[in-house]
Write a structure and sequence with these properties.
Layout (H helix, E strand, L loop, with lengths): L3 E7 L4 E8 L5 E6 L6
Antiparallel strand pairs: 1-2, 2-3
């Protein structure tokens, strides 16, 4: 079974969004998200 911490990325460039935790049913819950604010 797949479960535990996973990297959460977005798009073809795989921009890092944070870390999530996958449960035994394959669902991912957010744990640590990285937020970028434009300057």
């Amino acid at each position: 079974p797949l479960q535990g911490l996973v990297r959460v990325t977005e798009g073809a460039e795989e921009k890092f969004l944070g870390m999530g935790e996958m449960d035994d049913e394959g669902r991912v819950a957010p744990r640590r998200l990285v937020v970028e604010y434009p300057v």
